[in-house]
Amino acid sequence: MSTYKVNKTYQEINAKIRSGKVVVVTAEEIIGIVKKEGPVEAARKVDVVTTGTFAPMCSSGAFINFGHSTPTIKASKVWLNNVPAYGGLAAVDCYIGATETCEDDPLNKVWPGEFNYGGGHVIQDLVAGKKVHLKATAYGTSCYPSRIIEKKITLKELPSATLCNPRNGYQNYNCAVNLTRKTIYTYMGALKPKAGNANYCSSGELSPLFNDPYYKTIGLGTRIFLGGAEGYVTWQGTQHNPSVPRTEKGIPMKPAGTLWVMGDLKKMSHKWLVGMSIQGYGISLAVGLGVPIPILNEEMASYTAISDDEIFTQIVDYGNDYPNGISNSLGTVSYAELKSGSIELDGKNVLTVPLSSMVKAREIAEILKDWIQKGEFFLGEPQFTLPV
Amino acid sequence: MYSKILILRFPNTGVSKPTVCYLSKDYDLTFTILKATILPRKEGILVIEVTGAKKDFKRGMAFLRDQGIQVQNASQEVNRDTEKCVHCGACTAVCPTGALSVKRSDLSIDFNIQKCSVCELCVTACPTRAMKIQPTSEAFF
Lengths: 388, 141
What we know:
The complex is a heterodimer. Chain A is built from six helices and 24 strands. In chain A, strands 3, 4, 7, 10, 15, 16, 17, 18 and 19 form a nine-stranded antiparallel β-sheet that branches. In chain A, strands 6-5-8-9 form a four-stranded antiparallel β-sheet. A three-stranded mixed β-sheet of chain A has the order 1-2-20, with helices on both faces. Chain A is globular. Chain A has a domain at 10-54 and 164-272 and 295-354. Chain A is an alpha+beta fold. In chain A, helix 2 (29-45) runs antiparallel to helix 4 (298-304). Chain B is α+β, with helices and mostly antiparallel strands. Chain B folds into two domains: 2-73, Alpha-Beta Plaits, CATH 3.30.70.260; 77-135, Alpha-Beta Plaits, CATH 3.30.70. Helices cover 18% and strands 35% of the residues of chain B. Chain B contains three helices and eight strands. Chain B has helices at 21-27, 54-66, 121-125; strands at 2-10, 30-38, 44-52, 70-73, 76-80, 100-103, 108-111, 131-135. In chain B, strands 2-3-1-4 form a four-stranded antiparallel β-sheet. In chain B, helix 1 crosses helix 2 (54-66). The longest helix of chain B is centred in the middle third of the chain and has 13 residues, at 54-66. Chain B is elongated and about 60 Å long. The interface between A and B is medium-sized, with 33 and 19 residues.
């Protein structure tokens, strides 16, 4: 039997959503409530805490079925707006990955490369309703004789399109600096020499997995905000690594859990799936992601009350250590320090640079709160939770 | 004192005549020639910085245009497309003057055009290409 003072089920919370009596607050708002009234009282009052994050998430992409044309084709090579998509699937299925670069892109030949168009932009153009040029080639078979097709596709006319991101919503991420003597361009942004700036990428106290550090409510079937529509957590993400050092409250001190998420691309919006050109690095896709955390008991209320000063990460040198696979922390900093604008490293004040948008993260948490309050969004009870 | 960088385009009939020197002689303006080219079809392009009183500047520009010379403002500024900006903050890593900064109250990205030196580093550092170089919008005549 449970030893909690407050016990709620998913069904009870969903019944409250249906009747309009549900109490929803954001992961920023819950902090003050728990501080003032304690976790038990907070758990009695609040049913759901909404989270949000909006940042480049490279392990993203979409499965697209572009329908048959006559004569039929078994597309083996596919391009969308001249960006290669993987065609090693059934006849007219392909997967467009976020980081794929446009053919003929000069890449890093003129350093640092600009990377103006790629997979992330194709996905954004599709959800924006723009026409996308599709080219596919094949070797020809008896049942699929055609060897080449070219056509314009729009998301609306596609038989199906599914966003399927194998790794999103990293629970914590490194704070990046560069200790070499030259500016470097990384997936963590531009890093000036001799630790000229420290870049970080997490929405901290608003970030989904910081609010449920042991994934007690997150797993296959958790309904989420994804790219502006409803989506689902379908598995643990790739590189999901829960066994890292944690604080007393269970917050991982370095990159840990990840989410595998899916959703219907047709319902998503170009506002929440944004192609990113990362100078000197490549293409990515900024994904809007928000997970509602059900306050099933006072323990969940305590978890969601985590604040930036209790969340820590490691400072990592991306000039020498990271590219050489050297696992070395230059120091530990809290997100409160990172968000203050500067951190101290070796007695020197270093400017901090965010890469994860707090403005958008907050907007996502508010939208999700609004959906739930209006009775348009119900909690999905996971079939199993992510491995701890 | 008023100062502007201008692009002057001379028709092919005008390149051999003294013209710009009259800005000094008749209009009390000083100028520095930054670039001068005569194109294969004998049209001329001159990039100059003109300095003087605003009143004289306006009269001088009217004189140039009367000679059939096209006058264009060369000064540029950086603008932010607020539809495209997602407030990520990547630009604040490269901005040397602090024109782009993180507003501490809500962690949104602030762009103070007064501080901008038009170094253009943010243009390619911005992942969503929200920063654009444009001719200065301020009309000068």
